[in-house]
Amino acid sequence: MKSNKQFIYILIIFFIxxxxxxxxxxxxxxxxxxxxxLRQSIFYTxxxxxILLMLKINPKxxxxxxxxxxxxxxxxxxxxxxxxxEVNGAKAWFSIPVIGxxxxxxxxxxxxxxxxxxxxxxxxxxxxxxxxxxxVKVLIITLIPSFITFLEPDTGAVLIYFIIALSxxxxxxxxxxxxxxxxxxxxxxxxxVFYLYIVKTDFFINLFGSSMxxxxxxxxxxxxxxxxxxQNSLISIGSSGLLGKGINNILLYFPEGHTxxxxxxxxxxxxxxxxxxxxxxxxxxDVVIIKTKTDNSIYKYVISGVIGAxxxxxxxxxxxxxGLMPITxxxxxxxxxxxxxxxxxxxxxxIVMSIRKSKIKKPNMVFYL
Length: 369
Prior knowledge:
- The chain is built from 14 helices and three strands.
- The protein is globular.
- It is mostly helical.
């Protein structure tokens, strides 16, 4: 457990930052302040139990059952489209009495990382044809939950799935030329879509629907620095000074200040020095995960998937609150309010901690794609 002590210190800092930011923003907004702070504290407690559980489970077991974990999560993604609760135009949550809401797309990260790690590790890469087979397998496994999640719609989660897949492929033994092909294809596809959006608007709406058109509008809101959410976020951060305005003293309201835009709430409270300390803590956390030592390639794939998802969410979330990237509705891991996101990352952290302390030989696999 010695090798995991740093995670304990970091989680304590994350918890303090999270609770203070939620308390300050929600007290400015609503009378339900203590309820949200209490809920986040409960989520953290449940998350700690999840970490302890993962430390008791041999990583070999999780990898052996990764196919089933992936399938269960996929089924939940399908079910939420039919019996889920709609929030802000998205049907992405199950409403559970007493507990609250449950978001399957957050837990899909776990199934995707575990199953992709197994598939990549099993694939023999002797020729370029083997590499193509692997890329196709990874693409299919990633596209299935991505397509379902896109229908909710939850574009942010879809991007995370693809970042996970690319991160894991990157540390595999496939040649870099395939990444150049993937990058070129992506640029070409995105360029065509943006051309249709700007020049052939009616055709774009008929082809993709008005919902997709609205999502592109949000991207252009970011480009033009327009939109009340981003403007008030920038004003709050810019006016916070070196030491901030203090707890429970956020001056401006901006939507989702306790979830997607919690970094802006924190910056308003603690100022530039607080932001630098938080970013340093996040970097410390990431470096500890990256430095995880293992001789087992399959565990390296798991670590790369976890760090890929984390880095993307951290960079995307902080960047969108300061106007450097589009607003995609992505939370800041371990800081933003929300049980599904927090607990899913606690489980992934528990798996990483289990790998760090394990000296397990490469597991025998049962199922093949």
